[in-house]
Amino acid sequence: QVQLVESGGGSVQTGDSLRLSCEGPGRILSHHAVGWFRQTIVKEREFVAAISSNGSITYYADSGSVKGRFTISRDNTKDVVYLQMNNLKPEDTAVYFCATDPLNLRVHPYCSDYGCLRRYDDWGQGTRVTVSS
Fold first, then answer.
1. If you count DSSP H runs as helices and E runs as strands, how many of each does the chain have, helices first?
2. The dihedral sign for the CA sequence 59, 62, 86, 92
3. DSSP code of 116?
4. Mean of pLDDT over the chain
5. What is the DSSP string of 67-95?
6. Which residues are CB-neighbours of 109 under 8 A, at least 6 positions away?
7. What is the Cα–Cα distance from 62 to 53, expressed in whole angstroms?
8. ∠ CA 120-34-114 to the nearest 5 degrees?
9. What would the pLDDT profile of 33-49 be if each residue is shown by its tens digit?
10. Helix, strand, or coil here: 22?
């Protein structure tokens, strides 16, 4: 397996913005869809957003907790995927992970949604985001 690297986390105030980056060795990201997830001590790893390999398709968590505030994008010339997070709230506090989807968001035989961890292959070790009120 390949180790991805997340960066850009930090400690901020409510209403601030952060941009997270996800990078991998070689050109691995350019050939895969990438998802962003987050996890806290009390919550399981939850889906945040995903983007196809060419950036033409994006999905966000259905709960609406991030829609309108978070934007996933990618720059394949730099082999990096971003998660722009605006108007951060204390409930966004978590460790954020990125992961590759080798099926490029196509139908997975065992997953019905993009939050299904089983469809993701390579992961990073996460970057911590802390939002204080």
1. 0, 10
2. negative
3. -
4. 94
5. TTTEEEEEETTTTEEEEEE-S--GGG-EE
6. none
7. 21
8. 55
9. 999 999 999 999 999 99
10. strand
Tokens coding 67: 């829609």
Are 64 and 44 within 8 A, CB to CB? Answer: no
Bridge partners of 52, per DSSP, are none
Do residues 42 and 34 make contact, with C-beta atoms less than 8 angstroms apart? Answer: no
Q: Are 21 and 7 in contact (CB under 8 A)?
A: yes
In tens, the pLDDT along 80-108 reads 999 999 999 999 999 999 999 999 999 89
**53 vs 70: CA distance, rounded Å:** 19
Predicted confidence (pLDDT) at residue 64 exceeds the cutoff of 70 = no
- Please state the length of the chain: 133
Q: Is 60's pLDDT higher than 80? A: yes
Q: What is the largest CA-CA distance in the chain?
A: 42
Token duo for residue 84:
């722009």
Q: List C-alpha distances in Å: 41 to 37, 38, 44, 95, 105.
A: 14, 11, 8, 9, 28
Residue 73's φ and ψ, nearest 5 degrees, are -150, 175
Match 């919550």 to its residue by tokens.
43
